[in-house]
Amino acid sequence: MKLAYWMYAGPAHIGTLRVASSFKNVHAIMHAPLGDDYFNVMRSMLERERDFTPVTASIVDRHVLARGSQEKVVETITRKDKEEQPDLILLTPTCTSSILQEDLQNFVNRAATESKSDVILADVNHYRVNELQAADRTLEQIVRFYIEKAKTQNDLATIKTEKPSVNIIGIFTLGFHNHHDCRELKRLLTDLGISINEVIPEGGSIKNLKNLPKAWFNLIPYREVGLMTAKYLEKELNMPFVATTPMGVIDTAICIREIEAILNFTNQSKIDKEPYNFEDYIDQQTRFVSQAAWFSRSIDCQNLTGKKAIVFGDSTHAASMTKILAREMGIRISCAGTYCKHDADWFREQVSGFCDSVLITDDHTKVGDMIARVEPAAIFGTQMERHVGKRLDIPCGVISAPVHIQNFPLGYRPFLGYEGTNQIADLVYNSFTLGMEDHLLEIFGGHDTKQVITKSLSTDSNLTWTIEGLAELNKIPGFVRAKIKRNTEKFARENNISEITIETMYAAKEAVGA
Amino acid sequence: MTATFKKEVNLVFECETGNYHTFCPISCVAWLYQKIEDSFFLVIGTKTCGYFLQNALGVMIFAEPRYAMAELEEGDISAQLNDYKELKRLCLQIKQDRNPSVIVWIGTCTTEIIKMDLEGMAPRLESEIDIPIVVARANGLDYAFTQGEDTVLAAMVNRCPKKDQLTKPLQAVSFIDTDSLQKEKGPKYDSINHDKDLVLFGSLPSTVVTQLNLELQRQDIKVSGWLPSQRYSDLPILDSGVYVCGVNPFLSRTAATLMRRRKCKLIGAPFPIGPDGTRAWVEKICSVFGKQPQGLEQREAEIWKGLEDYLQLVRGKSVFFMGDNLLEVSLARFLIRCGMIVYEIGIPYMDKRFQAAELAFLEKTCHDMNVPMPRIVEKPDNYNQIQRIKELQPDLAITGMAHANPLEARGISTKWSVEFTFAQIHGFTNSRDILELVTRPLRRNNSLEGSLGWTQLVKSTV
Fold first, then answer.
1. Where does [4Fe-4S] cluster bind (chain B)?
2. Cis previous bond, A402, omega within 30
């Protein structure tokens, strides 16, 4: 048992459902007790989804438990098959129902015989993996299922496209700025003359998974989700992949060069063609299109010299951010860390040489303690670090999941590609006090924090509050207390009440509409 | 429309036993830890439970709340670790870090399934670490959303002192000056009610508690205590002869426990929601205490007068309750009295005995207002409900959070049912707040549609 107050990554079934509900026309069935189905709430609220989340909970209650859940699960699957006519139905238990140790594969087999859609069981250990690992695994499982199915049906599209093309793997719902990143990646790849073959899972159709092999290569923007799929496709179909996250000007250039190498390798047979060369593009984008390189050179940023920062997040974003801050902005990283414990080796290797220390933990209190100890000038972390920063009065830029409603801005805010470098530069700029502001603060001894004297509209003071009345007033939350006080006094004056009691307060409230 | 909305003369109950969504009953910790100021809630469950508390309720540990998860890991599930030792370790840590007056263990689906004997372990551990431990099984196998509070209060009944007990709740007195407590409590139990004690049960914010106390005081009835109390060490005395009355419709187990274990006398009344409900509630209590209600009718009339601006917005409008927090019947009754038409009352669980007075009041209200009886659908199937909403096109759907955005996108105004759980809706004083919530989507969408002219924001129809 572990005493837990908060967690960075959710339980496994959340990852599975994120993948399933990202695909078009896939329905997921959760085999779970009432209350475990809050995924629908999260997705509907955070993503502001217009459509009903394609996830149905097949409720396990005392009744179902006593009779065995097979009937209920099979019935729910076949019912959804008729109602929604999905291409695929994916069954997943939760932490809770997985301990019932039922033969869910058997349920699935039975339901499959009665359904038009394909039915599969998400194969995930709910006590050993977290949300991200489960998402990675489920995506691979779905892709494998359809590649194998296409193979047996002999309609796997194995002929490569004429022009260079790519699959983007790992964009999905409730991801950190995933939609914006995807748009930016498409733009970048189009600039390079590479067409987009498939984007999965977000918005992808499982009917098109058999077309995955048509692409020249796969691009995995985030290593948390998609790497397993890419490795499977490499092994099975000999498809190369690029897993360098194009975040920051340097890594974006590295990513483009890796793509270049793959294109030239694939293009070998076509002797007559010129080899691909993206160096001019990289140079042009880095120095002139993206403002980030110039920004960190501009005089405004001189004050970043020697500033200390802390980075914490998922392994992709934390590693990339560490490198950007250290290499591209000249900021000293006192500590870089990730909660992706399963990816610790890779993370250490990536950030080695760019930070003073590394912290691998999924315990937010350790991160908080570290921040308090180091006292950095800025934090780049998750919503939790932002909260810690607020308490310690240290600014924090949010760079990684777990997501929050604020991470679903309506405007365009990618973190990847060249537009992403601008966004990140803005984030860094806004997180530190810079330029003249730094000096002015020194001269005037900090921000003007004098309280604005509360305006009171009650000028005549012939009103008195009884002790009980005052005590009751003090129970009212601070942000509305003044308003309630004013309204109550107004009411008292209008009704010639000179002593305000609890009764007066509530009479005033009741009279508001009268 | 007639296909699904027949004019019924009597209340129709249905049980769809469908796939429906409500929040998990462990959500009750979110308001109970705030209510009982010296408590600590330990939810014994999996990552799934923890992530729910953190996400769906938006309650992070930001305010360093007095609750935590005892997260069950693989070793716990496979029984390789000793539950007792593990819980002892965690509770000792809690005692050291927070020193609460009581630790409430919240059992979950997982502790049910692995048959963890929480009730067996608690007394042993309690005497070993010297902190009272209350065990509540707020699991989703047996309960829905607000019923979590019911399980906690039912468990707390057993910790309330009896009259002949001089001490306060078990062991909670160690550091409190007992003499002063007695002095404080002393006068509460004689005075005006003449040896008839009244204890109200249901968790309400302290301002609402004050309001309801005042309401009864006006009728010369003194409330001798509330369950839960602001502090665990102030739990009310419960004994045979004590009258008890609930303020929330989801507290049927607590009511049963009060009657069976403490031989209390339950006052079955409609719930004090809306001016009509509050008046009926006060009247019922008055009748039990042999008091003639004073100025109650006039008070109700005044409140209604104050609501007139809102009533103009809702009269003749229709509403559909998908069902979530078990407050549905009381809210529907109030809205019908306001002049609305209720198509359907979805409700996760319907205890017809505990809600008998409320149901009778609903029926009477429908007759008085001359509107058809709503269907009451227990354990509704959300998919079927969406089809019915599509067909009936109600002016307002009161739904769980998962359905609100998709319905809005299809031109149906919605209000989150959870808001009624967290807002102050009880008593005369707060009637306005209910209508403020109900009319908000109507007012807002009216003003948007007037100027924008579109309602459908999805490409294909529903």
1. 24, 49, 109
2. yes
Where are chain A's structural domains? 12-130, 165-288, 293-444, 464-513
Bridge partner list, B71 = A2, B45
**What's the topology of domain A165-288?**
Rossmann fold (3.40.50)
Contact A19, B33 (CB under 8 A): no
Confidence category of residue A475, pLDDT binned at 50, 70, 90: confident
Rounded mean pLDDT, A404-425: 92
Residue A13 per-residue DSSP state? H
Handedness of CA B157, B158, B163, B166 (dihedral sign): negative
Contacts of B50 in chain A (CB under 8 A): 4, 7
Token representation of residue B311: 């009533």
Rounded Cα distance, A466 and A499, in Å: 7
Q: Using CA atoms, how far apart are residues A125 and A73, in angstroms rounded to an integer?
A: 19
Residue A282 clears pLDDT 80, i.e. is over it: yes
Residue A76 touches partner B, C-beta closer than 8 Å:
yes
Cα B166 to Cα A23, B194, B234: the distances in Å are 65, 21, 13
The answer to whether residue B366 is domain-embedded is yes
pLDDT in the model for residue A390: 86
- Is A128 in Cβ contact with B302 (below 8 Å)? no
If pLDDT is split at 50, 70 and 90, which confidence band does A446 have? low
Fold topology of A293-444: Rossmann fold (3.40.50)
The residue among A225, A433, A455, A440 whose CA lies nearest residue A342 is A225
B230/A31 Cα distance (integer angstroms): 39
Q: Which of A42, A45, A96 sits opposite B48 (nearest CB)?
A: A96
Stretches where chain B sits below pLDDT 70 are 1-9, 56-64, 165-195, 460-462
User: What is the CA B71 to chain-centroid distance, rounded?
Assistant: 26
**Identical fold between A12-130 and A293-444:** yes
CATH hierarchy code of domain A464-513 = 1.10.8.550
Q: Does a structural domain hold residue B180?
A: no
What count of residues does chain A have?
514
Question: Do A129 and A101 meet the contact criterion of CB atoms below 8 Å apart?
Answer: no
Q: Are residues B319 and B432 in the same domain?
A: yes
pLDDT for position B451: 73
Closest chain B residue to A391 measured between Cα atoms? Answer: B62
Q: What is the average pLDDT across A417-428?
A: 94
Nearest Cα residue in chain A from B86: A1
B188 within some domain:
no
- Cα A218 to Cα A259: distance, rounded to the nearest angstrom: 10
For the question of whether the overall pTM of this predicted structure is more than 0.80, the answer is yes
What does the DSSP assignment read for A159-208? SPPSS-EEEEEEE-TT-TTHHHHHHHHHHHHHHTT-EEEEEEETT-BGGG
Q: What is the pLDDT of residue A405?
A: 83
Binding residues of B for [4Fe-4S] cluster: 24, 49, 109
pLDDT for B8 = 63
Query: Do residues A185 and A179 touch, judged by C-beta distance below 8 A?
Result: no
Q: What's the pLDDT at A458? A: 45
